[in-house]
Amino acid sequence: MTNSEEKKMGWLPILQVALLNIAVTLVILPLDSTLNRIMITELGISAAFVSFLIALRFLTSPLRIWFGRLSDTRPLRGKHRTGYIAIGMVVMTLGFILTPGAAVSASQGGVLPILWAIFVFALLGFGVNLTTPLYFALVADQSSEKQRARIVALMFILLGVVVVVAAFGLSAVVGPNPLENGRLNIVFGAIAIAVIVMTFIGLVGVEKKATRPTPTLDRDSSWQAIRTLLIKNRQVRRFFIYLVLTFVAIEAQEIVLEPYAAAAFDMAVDETTRLTGIFRLGQLLMLAVGAYLVNRIGHRRTSYFGLATGIIGFALIILTGIRGLQGPFMGGVLVIGMAGGLISVTNLTLMMNMTEPKRAGIYLGAWGFAQAVGVGTGTLLGGVIRDLVLAISGLDLLSYITVYGFEIALLLLAIPFIRHLNITQFKEDTKIKTTQILAQIGDAS
Q: What is the number of structural domains in the chain?
């Protein structure tokens, strides 16, 4: 029996980590929706600049690798993850509280207000990138490989329910005039207090103190040695590319889904808003199913199932748009949501399994970086491809169909990468690389 199989994470720590995941999402949700819209519509800030501010947390995502390495090698008060997560949550929350004021200042123009807004959003991104990979590292540290799919499914089912409730709640409390009487600042302040309380509950007792000293390798290895672990390992490169391809494919559709429905079916705003709910419902339906499939038929076959479901869903979206079939189009949205749920469970479970003891932080930092690259690139490419095709062809419907065709191509490209991915080979290669690094250290000394 392997060490990974001997470990078992209790339900209380699982719920605590889920609470941390929810806390981060409660910060991201109003940032990407409410504040995003207010900055562009009510404050009249350039959409390009707003997109840049929102994307800063993706642009700073390479920091995840360094933060992961830091938590692996420099425990705080004897704990590898807890202290860093707490620092990240505080920094993230501080940036979050400052964002409404920074947005209002930036709308008035001037170099200093714009620089202040960039600093505030970067500060928030710094906190998100410090926190996110490390609570997944906590799961990887404490759970067995068989348990992880169920943990991921539970975390994201709870998250999905909370996001739906939070979205409706946010809409009610912000009201039609959020900038009057400091209402937006009050709402953001209340969310910040909730996040800090959830962080405290989520971290108390969730991690035990390290019983063994951190290995010399982890303390003294150079960045060249770290690059050896990440870049020169074929399985690492293969999985990194697979993650980027699948996250780009799933995310690129989100930015064009509602405008496509309006162009193809002349749907009103309230009708297109429901599409996100249908997509999320599909995700929720397949999270638990995905966890069962991962343990029953394995990661590779579950990935094939998710990729095939995504290809079918995107094909349905294209065909129903061309034929003007609104009912089947809704079914296509549900199917791509289901594909998103399957791919999310498989990806996140693989992300936690493609780690090594004592180095879970650096590997999850790398996988988190791949996720951020995929999400950021997908968000950008969805809009760029649509605008480019529209400018060339002048055909609105064709511009959206091209985006969905591009996503089908990405999912097809991902197949060979997952087909040749081998977790056992990854672990064997990692041991070889570790031996090489030890030899490098010995030669240097």
A: 2
